[in-house]
Amino acid sequence: NAGVTQTPKFQVLKTGQSMTLQCAQDMNHEYMSWYRQDPGMGLRLIHYSVGAGITDQGEVPNGYNVSRSTTEDFPLRLLSAAPSQTSVYFCASSYSLYSNQPQHFGDGTRLSIL
Amino acid sequence: KQEVTQIPAALSVPEGENLVLNCSFTDSAIYNLQWFRQDPGKGLTSLLLIQSSQREQTSGRLNASLDKSSGRSTLYIAASQPGDSATYLCAVGGSNYKLTFGKGTLLTVNP
């Protein structure tokens, strides 16, 4: 059971480049989300999805796009990378945010924008 | 807007000591509260989840309590061990499918 898998683990980009951070889960979870973690800021919600075809914005959505075509996958796209997007990105999933089931996190993608 | 505060920001204790980590939140309309552990360079691991209707949850040496009316939760760690050294994060599940995190408590348990 792989849980939540994020790829790549590390990435360096130049300002203005675009890229997609991949997230896949094999637990048939309906709820998936993306967070960024910055020193002194804690984890902040970027986007989330409550099921295939349904996405919504979190606290810090600007500069990021998401889509959810399948239950398993929830990619995060950086449209035009900026140095302010240098961060550690975490994907999480759960059966439901309101259930007694915990959130499962991936190991993160460490992204540097030069 | 929900705000989650964790005190202290850092804590250093000798091995074997019992300790308490604190979490407070501003909006009591929550669905659940979770405590996570994060090791350096790693993702988050869920330790305990308390539903809003519950008062506490226990797992091994860990006990988490929830007082929704006062907006407080505590994580009690009994007989701490060096392997408990990590950052502990509190998160509350609220409306609109959003999980709000505190900034964490960095725990160091010294042998």
Put the structure in a nutshell.
The complex is a heterodimer of chains A (114) and B (111). By secondary structure, chain A is mainly beta.
Distance between the termini of chain B: 41 Å
Structural class of chain B: mainly beta
Helix content of chain A: under 10%
Uncertain segments of chain A: none
What's the alpha carbon Rg of chain A, rounded to whole Å? 13 Å
* Content of β-strand of chain B: over 45%
Distinctive features:
heterodimer, A: 114 residues, mainly beta, 7-stranded mixed β-sheet, 4-stranded antiparallel β-sheet, 11 strands, 51% strand, globular, B: 111 residues, 6-stranded mixed β-sheet, 5-stranded antiparallel β-sheet
Structure in words:
The complex is a heterodimer of chains A (about 110) and B (about 110). Chain A is mainly beta and about 110 residues long. Chain A has strands at about 5, 10-15, 20-25, 30-40, 40-50, 55, 65, 75-80, 85-95, 105, 110-114. In chain A, strands 2, 4, 5, 6, 9, 10 and 11 form a seven-stranded mixed β-sheet that branches. A four-stranded antiparallel β-sheet of chain A has the order 1-3-8-7, with no helix packed on it. In chain A, strand 5 (about 40-50) and strand 6 (about 55) form a beta hairpin. The model of chain A has no long low-confidence stretch (mean pLDDT about 95). By secondary structure, chain B is mainly beta. Chain B has no helices and eleven strands. In chain B, the strands form two sheets. In chain B, strands 2, 4, 5, 9, 10 and 11 form a six-stranded mixed β-sheet that branches. The model of chain B has no long low-confidence stretch (mean pLDDT about 95). Chains A and B meet through strand 4, strand 5 and strand 10 of A and strand 4, strand 5, strand 9 and strand 10 of B.
